[in-house]
Amino acid sequence: xxxxxxxxxxDDQDLVLRTKAGDRSxxxxxxxxxxxxxxxxxxxxxxxxxxxxxxxxxxFARAYLSIDRFxxxxxxxxxxxxxxxxxxxxxxxxxxxxxxxxxxxxxMAEGQREHRPDPRALLETKELGEQIAxxxxxxxxxxxxxxTLREIEGLAYREIARIMDCSTGTVMSRLHAARQKLQQMxxxxxxxx
Amino acid sequence: MKALLFHQSDxxxxxxxxxxxxxxxxxxxRRQSLEAHIxxxxxxxxxxxxxxxxxxxxxxxxxxxxxxxxxxxxWDNVERxxxxxxxxxxxxxxxxxxxxxxxxxxxxxxxxxxxxxxxLFTADLLLRxxxxxxxxxxxxxxxxxxxxxxxxxxxxxxxxxxxxPDQQLKIIWVLEQRRS
Lengths: 193, 180
Prior knowledge:
- The complex is a heterodimer.
- Chain A is built from 8 helices and no strands.
- Chain A is an all-alpha fold.
- A 3-stranded antiparallel sheet of chain B has the order 1-2-3, with no helix packed on it.
């Protein structure tokens, strides 16, 4: 494995062109750039560390093998996420059941969550985080996916619609339904007063 | 009462759009009218605060990251999967499956073509006029119906005598030249 350039400074379009020309190291840069985000999206859909890791890696492999079909009308990550989300949803359906979230899972292990320096705040946030994670895990998969792409990835409705192969109106209604259910389930936890 | 009903209806419309509002997805005109409503409606204003709190909690609680070993092995595993997939690609079935996976609408197009072909084939079988079975060529058909027993000829006429093989029927055929 050779040294790779700092991926934050390299344009995705340029990396895609180099990958199409047969430069495997250019694709490695794309993988390293998006691997964490791809894993996070897969984990939010599947709620299982090993499955999420496997699906994220599979999505990159499929993206590489089909890179010639990527025409660049959307961003590389939108295209990648479309592959990823389809794979994750297929995987969840094949699994046939939703794995309940557990903070003891490798994907949620200590040190993998965001760093929070204050122990008291960490405890409070951890308890709140557990409840929120459970509530999100109980959402239908399409709502959970739309919520993840919006809240975690910060994608625009148009991009989410393209990834999930639906209209922006459907994205809006899925997000609205997801948020309403979360508000009902979390009650006072989301009350700012 | 009418004013109250209108107000409630207005609030439900506003609440349905609050998510799009905090996501920055509302058109300018709708955003302005929504902000005007929120400025004068405590209920919708409280709903907006709740949504913002929920969004902040979601962003803090749901972000997970890859651990050290998984980060290191990630690219190696992607490479391994690429090699495995390339090896499998020699099987044409996998290529077709992959094509269908990337272009789901192709499934319907293929199903339509296949369905039409089956339909046309079936219709052709059902609607084709029945062809009578060919007459078998038995040994009796090989036998001649009549036998020429004799031919006698004169200057202006000829007489041919036919008979059936079992001699039960005889035919006399007189051929006479026409005089002009």
